[in-house]
Amino acid sequence: MVTQKPGTDDSRAAASRTDPLTLEVVELIGSVVARYYEEYEVAAGKHALTGAQARVLGLLSLEPMPMRRIAQKLKCEPSNVTGIVDRLEARGLVERRPDPADRRVKLAAPTEEGLDTARSLRESLDFAREPLGELSREERVSLRGLLQRMLGQGGAP
């Protein structure tokens, strides 16, 4: 076992992960995520959808995509996505179509009804939108950059 001298980069990094401010920020992020998912489940239920179905429909409303890519974005197994898309397809909200770039690949794409449902879902999610509306544009840009950095997406330094 290697022990670090106090004041070294590794010991400072370890301390910063457990300092009270970091723990409070982690707790606040957890609370935001929990409230967002809770509201998302309620909004999805109003359309007789599960939260997972609503999230897939929301993704597909941005662009059609293959199951594997949906699974990557949702961080789940492709077989789970297949079942979700099957149920959305049975409801007439999604359809499968060949990928024009590779006819061997099937894309899941929203139908007109699916696009309408996704739009309605987005409009009903007030929890995230309303508090963000109270922030100035500069604050929202700063928050976006910080979140991108946290996710390793290269936001502003």
Automatic annotation (TrEMBL):
Keyword hit for Transcription: yes
GO biological process, one term: response to stress
Molecular functions (GO terms): DNA binding; DNA-binding transcription factor activity
Keyword line: DNA-binding, Transcription, Transcription regulation
Annotated HTH marR-type domain residues: 22-152
UniProt keyword Magnesium present: no
Superkingdom of source: Bacteria
The protein, known as: MarR family transcriptional regulator
Annotated source species: Streptomyces silvensis
